[in-house]
Amino acid sequence: MNNIGKTMIINGTTVPFTNEKNVLDVVRNAGIDLPTFCYYSELSTYGACRMCIVEDEKGRILSSCSEVPRDGMVINTHTPKLRKHRKTILKLLLASHCRECTTCAKSQNCKLQDLANRFGIKQIKFDKSEKAWKDEYEIDDSSPSIVRDPNKCIHCGDCVRMCAEKQNVGAIDFALRGYEMMVTPAYEMPLAETECVNCGQCAAVCPTGAILIKDDTMKVWDAIEDSNKRVVVQVAPAVRVAFGEEFDMPEGANVMPLMVAAMRKVGFDEIYDTSFSADLTVIEETAEFVEKLSKPEELPLFTSCCPAWIKYVENKRPELMPHISSCKSPQQMFGSVFKEYAKDNATDDREVVVVSVMPCTAKKAEAIRPQFTHDGVKEVDYVITTQELANMIYEAGINFDELVPEAHDMPFGLYSGAGLIFGVTGGVTEAVIRKVLEDKSHNSFDSIKYLGVRGLEGTKEFELPLGDKILKIAVVSGLKNADNLIKRIQSGEVHFDFVEVMACPNGCINGAGQPYSSVFEKKERADGLYSADRQTKIKHADANPMVGTAYEDIIKDKAHQLLHVHY
Asked: pTM (2 decimals)?
């Protein structure tokens, strides 16, 4: 619809609009923050919460998220009637869904709590003592990644639409009607028994504490406090450009040196960077890709770094498993290589415990897969998210902004820029391109970004000249985008040689374990990783001297055992 030259009257002020899809977007573009629970512009309009209501010149109440803007429309956003309605809605939600506000894991990050404070709600007159609004539901903690507390669900539908529309999983949906309506897996099954891929994007959009990341920090604290354990931590690339947000620092700021200092004070014995094992992934995955280029029937090669993507293929696209790279993810490569290193360098007789700090909730599920446990020993013992590490630092009373920056430990603290950019969609592909290019000059690497590999679009397709071949490459983030691409491949509409898939929109920078904020369009975090890449002298995995040392001294003839997996 072309709305060029059209205007609305909002609170007595003339406001122009063009192609906004609803009144809500026009109001927000005019600098007025209408509250919502159930609205994300990237998801379908649901209109359940009614917090975004406006009043027209005839006194009619309209839901602005579902109202199409019209030329000459006159609305008000905060009349006495609207303020009364919003407060009533909030009081009802608080009375029926928020019994433990001060102890809720999402306290201070809860949209319901924020809006209650914004609208000055100090007392709730509705009687909660007799469970007037609904019965108590059991908490579902069956998943290794997230916890569902239906008692805190406000039926906004954000999680349902995210799971279905963006991730194409459909593990949860609305059930029953009226007073008994609830969000649940089919037949109220435990989440662990559904097709959930553990991506956690439902938790990322949940405005209350109804879906939360499973907290494993107590296990890590116990390991740190055990004098018989050598607690080693690895930190994923995407964490460094989001972690500062937990401490009121700018989005995209690279705070890795401060994180290292904080983790030493928390009590970790050794601190390393998963970017190192990402370099190993580049070496192995590139070799696998080059080998498959001579076997067209085995193409395309799909990346294997994302455990939620692997789970999705197992659940919905098992015919693709032969096309999935056999490489372990960087998280698991680090765990297997470090434990092999510790075994061969037994100067410390304490039990080795490997902890991962990840932007991703699916990494929790990956770490406990049977394929990554050997003779009763797990490659990675515990996985905590960016948010969980921040909570540990808060709990320890560490003043993050007063720390003096520190460096990683060696030998696994050295990495290339190629390993570093794994955290953004297209990063794995760019790292592989840097490896296969014969010209390893800075100018050559700088030109890669113009191929089409960078950017936060959900689907990117481009070609790469390589010798006498033209490689066709696709990069997708978000599982719905991945499934759409798969359909095109299987129909014969398109052909690709290499396909990178990340389950979370925009890649790992937008993992569900990252600080709570908008789950879409994380340009600042992407820019932060690319900026960190520019500041590294080592640009490709081959040039990382510690990679060569690892192959010679640790991996040796065990590359298949330590670096590859078959699901």
From this structure: 0.87
Q: At residue 534, does pLDDT exceed 80?
A: yes
Is 8 in a helix, a strand, or coil? Answer: strand
pLDDT value at residue 133: 46
pLDDT in tens, 374-425: 999 999 999 999 999 999 999 999 999 899 999 999 989 899 999 999 999 9
Closest CA to 101 of 117, 81, 79: 117
Q: Is the CATH number of domain 6-78 3.10.20.740? A: yes
What is the third-level CATH fold of 218-563? Rossmann fold (3.40.50)
Tokens of 513: 């374990």
The rounded Cα 359 to chain-centroid distance in angstroms is 6
Beta bridge partners of 498: 301, 473
In 81-226, which ranges are E strands?
146-148, 173-175, 182-184, 211-213
What does the pLDDT look like over 418-475, one tens digit per residue?
A: 999 999 999 999 999 999 887 666 667 778 888 889 999 999 999 998 888 899 999 9
Q: How many CB atoms lie within 10 A of CB 293?
A: 17
Work out the number of other CB atoms within 10 angstroms of the CB of residue 74. Answer: 13
Is 513 in contact with 198 (CB distance < 8 Å)?
no
Tell me how far apart the alpha carbons of residues 354 and 377 are, in angstroms, rounded to a whole number. Answer: 11
Extract the tokens encoding 349. Answer: 């007789």
Q: Which sequence spans correspond to the domains of the chain?
A: 6-78, 88-213, 218-563
Instruction: Look at residue 173 and give its three-state secondary structure.
Output: strand
Structurally, what CATH architecture does the domain formed by 88-213 represent?
Answer: 2-Layer Sandwich (3.30)
| Token pair listed for 496 | 């690709």
Peptide bond into 300 cis (omega under 30): yes
Instruction: Compute CA 397 distance to the chain's CA centroid, rounded to the nearest angstrom.
Output: 27
Handedness of CA 416, 420, 421, 422 (dihedral sign): positive
CB 201 within 8 A of CB 160: no
Partnered with residue 173 across adjacent β-strands are 184
Per-position DSSP letters for 92-113, written without gaps between them? HHHHHH-S-TTT-TTTTS-HHH
b/e map 529-543, b = 16+ CB within 10 Å = bbebbeebebbbbbb
Q: Is 90 exceeded by the pLDDT of residue 126?
A: no
